[in-house]
Amino acid sequence: MIYRLQLPILSASSPWLRRRLSFYSTTAATASPFASHLSPPLKPQTPLFLRPLSHSTSPSALLSFRQWAESLARSYAADLSVDGGPSASELIRELSWLLQDATFEAGETMLLRTDLQDLYCLWKQRIEERRPFQYIVGCEHWRDLVLAVREGVLIPRPETEELVDLVAGVEGFKDGLWADLGTGSGAIAIGIGRILGENGRVVATDLSETAVEVARFNVERYKLEDKVEIRQGHWFEPLQDLHGKLSGLVSNPPYIPSSHIPGLQAEVGKHEPSLALDGGMNGMDHLLHLCDGLISALKPGGFFAFETNGDKQSECIVDFISSQGSNTFHDMRIVEDFAGIAMTNNSSNAKAGMVLKHLTAEELQDFIIYISMFDNEGRSTKLFITFNLLNSVFMIFNLLYINFNYKLIKIIIFVLII
């Protein structure tokens, strides 16, 4: 059985959710000139599983709903597969999760957290309108967190979990001052905030008022107000009082080329905020803007990590930064990994200056998988396993519920020196 809530490091999403969410992964809103067209902020909605059991129905009525919902899923499955949408079995798994969140058995009565008619409406939205499942239930399982999400806020992706693990490998990170630019639901900021030391702090920013409201809701729910501060504004603008003081900076900005937006999967392109997806003509607009502001934002020895699309964007950033001065940044390296799965799970020894590149299925042949293990004294050793046949890789990792249809993604990390 696949659980939505799993151990830290591993994603809390199913293989279907991993595949769907990994096409393009961002958590930030873009900047003006779109800012003037922003709609009024949407208030955070309480996730379905946290709502009171204020409705009831009979087991037979609920069974009728389930039978209808399964039939609807099967009837639409072929149409949904055209753009890589969910299969019937994957939709039925989501249906089970919906009922887990919405119902509670009390003898011969089924208590509900929403009216039964609302469940019919929600499921029609999921199937006929392709509304994302996370918006239906109002939350996403990410690492060991359950984060509130809603329309207007990008759904946090499993592969972005790796940013938190990389931060945890930075020497002295626990008592540093960190920034998360384009925080969206607050996922990265909260993930970092929960592992900081007594003096550590995260300041997270987002242009979207809706994202700021949702991020604050999530911060308050996890009682991290003393660790994570949410500010509204465009990239570095809310951090002017912190320039030159940041120990580290992370961001998962919009990096999808504008011309690719119309071809996105319906769940993404039709429902998630375009302000959080569109990276301009070549997807680099916001990444380059972030690079421009790093030197003034970070203190000497500071660390930063960006997630990018894998289509040469990382190389462009390296070239751009190198052109600004060869002695400003150092220790730039590439580490290959699956989207959302820490193949090198040795975060205590992670080195700043890595570029994380997630692999496509075609790149798996003859790939060496690094599995880190720790002995009782904390020393790390590595087990190297080589799979020469792609079919062998598929067979083994299918046992771990890993899907291989991931979009190539990279995370770039640099270190600022004096």
Automatic annotation (TrEMBL):
GO terms for MF: nucleic acid binding; protein methyltransferase activity; S-adenosylmethionine-dependent methyltransferase activity
Organism, as annotated: Dendrobium chrysotoxum
GO biological process annotation, one example: methylation
Domain Methyltransferase: 180-240
TM region positions: 383-404
CDD domains, per database record: AdoMet_MTases
NCBIfam families assigned to the protein according to its UniProt record, in alphabetical order: hemK_fam
PANTHER family named in the record: PTHR47441, RELEASE FACTOR GLUTAMINE METHYLTRANSFERASE (PTHR47441:SF3)
Superkingdom of source: Eukaryota
Protein name according to UniProt: Methyltransferase domain-containing protein
Gene3D superfamilies, sorted: Vaccinia Virus protein VP39 (3.40.50.150)
Keywords for this protein: Membrane, Methyltransferase, S-adenosyl-L-methionine, Transferase, Transmembrane, Transmembrane helix
Classification via InterPro entries: DNA_methylase_N6_adenine_CS, HemK-like, Methyltranfer_dom, RF_glutamine_MTase_cyano, SAM-dependent_MTases_sf
